[in-house]
Amino acid sequence: MGRYLALLIALMLGSWIAFNEQLLPESRPVGAPASEFSAERAFADVTLMAAAPHPTGSPANARVRDALVGRMAELGLSPQVRPGVGVQTPRRATDRIYAGAVENIVGVLPGRDRNAPAVALMAHYDSVPASPGAADDAMGVAVALETVRAIKARGTPARDVMVVITDGEEAGLLGANHFFRRDPLATRIGLDINAEARGSSGRVNMFQTSAQNGELVRMFARTARAPSSSSLSVLIYEKMPNDTDLTESLRAGIAGLNYAIIGRQFDYHSPTSTPANLERGSLQDMGTQVLAATAETAFAAQLPGRAPTVVYSNLFGDVVIAYPVWFGWVILLAAAVLLAFAVRWARHSGEFPASDIVRGMGALAFAGVGTVAVLEFARRLTGAGFGFLEQRFLLAQSAPWEWAIMMMSLGFLMLAAGDMARGRRWMAAIPLVLGLAASAFGEIDWIGIVAGVVAGAIGVFVYSRPASRKGAWAGALILGLILAAILQIVAPGAAYVIAWPLLVAAIGAAATALSARRGILPIGLLVVLAAATLGWQGGISHFAYEGMDLMPLFAIQMITAGLVLWPLAQPDTGAQKGLVIGGLLLAGGLAMTLIIRAEDPWTPRYPQVSYVGYHVDQDTGRAWRYSPPTMGGPWTDAVLRAEGGPVERLSHWAWRQPMLAATAPPVAEAPPSLELGRAADGSLLLSAAPPSGARTLELRLRSGVGGQVTRVAGVPAEMALPPGQWVRVYWLSAGTGVDIGVRPVGAGRLDVRYVAGFDRWPAGVAPLPARPADLMPWDSSDSTFVSGTRSFTW
Asked: Residue 588 has what pLDDT?
């Protein structure tokens, strides 16, 4: 079998395995056994909740609340609406507080031992403005209801199963904040299972666990059905600024598991997150996973306890490998022994200079760092900006863009390995030129520059002369061993990503004397090992792709792919074939990127976003129609010019950025009620009530003498009030006011700015025309805002 035919077979077989591992299960019908999860049964609840956008405090959210109370009563859960106030200070924005009145819904399926710690199924029922929230999080609520129905059909569980449907998650985890900090029912929970979504399709990933997860993960590994989860996802999520409701339960010391889908992110927080666009197979996958964990723990005599954190990952099918952190060193030791044996055996069949090993290490590093430069250039070449809204151009073309990334990554890896047979220094120019060219699209791309220069410098050394395949592969494996050891020290939960492919490659190296042995059996073994590794790695690569703007993640992917593909990708010394496959893949990926750039992706299924608002400044009596500059277009321009005024770029303290705005006739909207008084303890009490019909009220406070915000709506809060600086309190509630406690340093003055938001376009001005089918409103678009200032002294 020729090496290049073997390489093609390995690539195709690995792609086939990866594709099949990402396939979604069939949605089970309404007539499925009562003890099993049925996506079709659950889908009825998704349709019930996601008929329209329903943000916290809106009449639509109240209708969803009432419908859920009825559904939970049908299931025999004796539901209660548990009102309260959530108060949250973001981790990275200590100058603001988000707060609101929330109405959580809690129901209980009684167990045999009512005093045993309960298992909670948690999801949130509110949506963001403008999105029906079919995936985020009507799907999670539907999963919880269908899961508890299936549990009930299996008999009486050993402990209570509590269904906790929170409010105000999108506004800042407000419902979960109230429940886990101030609702006594939370103290009954021993395990919290949360369901979330950041898209509308894809395999479900169990991406977060509580600390000291050893027993919890072993339970998960024992019961999960075709799972997707790893200690890497847990590690990455811990470092990210994102939060879900599980954040609040973990802060309360409750063990937990967090499940989510992250595919087809175009629909995340979008008007396109409709029941029709929710993938039924993803709903089935979520339900199957959640039911497995819930049933195991609900009927168990004891809940999983705390145990040292483990390293783990799904392999294929239902197989999850989990082991203690120290066992990672055993894997590396085994790989090192096999590698030493392979090198010693290979040198018996023909010497190769030690410099070949060094060049092999450099070539694999060149492949990894150079991939970053290539992909950074390609990302800029698409013309799409960086950021969630800016990347929607690519999210609308997610499938071809993922193929382009994979083709370019593997293509560059094939070039890096293939040209080791001839050793031509011009190879170093590819990442150098592309890395520098990444800055040719309007701004300096430091990632591209650094990656290109570093890869170029490595390449000049590596490709100064040919290197033998045996020596180069040995060097690549040694570099993999070094990198895995470093990860084992600094981030053991991520070390398996390199350690497992390294062990597989070392087995292949030992069995083939570092690829010196020829014939069908040795080459066939290398193909099987490479295909299996690539197939397993496909899930990790897809996870990295979902990061969209994190091109450096693919450096690790190409390094691990290189460990198993190297003996197939590098031809005999002096051969020319090394450039063929790599060049075709790289060129094909770049060509596809150009096609993506030229494409107009906006359709009724993938519409472009738009935002227009109406704003009245009640201090000056002036009003504007406005829109962010990045969301312009013919329809938006027509809306701004509807009153006949010119469109200008204007700034206002109530806007986060300068806006495209046109003067509009002011309409009469009632201002909020603001009063400053004294509390019983002598501190100040600012009482604010939003005007009738307003759902949101933003208050900006500035004290001349400084002080402290001590409570919001009766809930203790801590936010510094530095002298002369503005801080913010966001209050989300329809029809109810808020009292803000302030403890000043001394006598002085308090300036208050307000912005009240109404989820409607004002009457008495030119109405909004119908949007084209390929254009959709975003977030709080089509709303009315009134702003003004007040000052108080004491």
From this structure: 96
Distance between CA atoms of 17 and 531, rounded to whole angstroms? 8
Burial profile 734-773: b = 16 or more Cβ within 10 angstroms, e = fewer: beebbbbbbebeeeeebebbbbbbbbebbeebeebeebee
Q: Name the residue type at position 59.
A: P
Q: Is 183 within 8 Å of 324 (Cβ atoms)?
A: no
- Specify the residue for token string 């599980």: 246
To the nearest 10 degrees (0 to 180), the angle between helices 398-418 and 553-569 is 50
Give pLDDT, residue 345.
84
User: How much is the pLDDT for 132?
Assistant: 98
Bridge partners of 623, per DSSP, are 616, 664
**17-26, 293-302, 342-351, 377-386: least confidently modelled range:** 342-351
Q: What is the pLDDT of residues 494-539, one digit of tens each?
A: 999 999 999 999 999 999 988 877 788 989 999 999 999 999 998 8
Are 306 and 255 in contact by the 8 Å Cβ rule? The answer is yes
pLDDT of residue 578 exceeding 60, the answer is no
Burial class (CB within 10 angstroms; exposed 0-12, middle 13-18, buried 19+) of 704? middle
d(CA 160, CA 188): 9
Contact 381, 441 (CB under 8 A): yes
Q: In what order do the strands lie in the sheet with 684-689?
A: 673-678, 684-689, 738-744, 707-712, 715-721
Q: What is the pTM of this model?
A: 0.94
Distance CA 589, CA 576 (A): 22
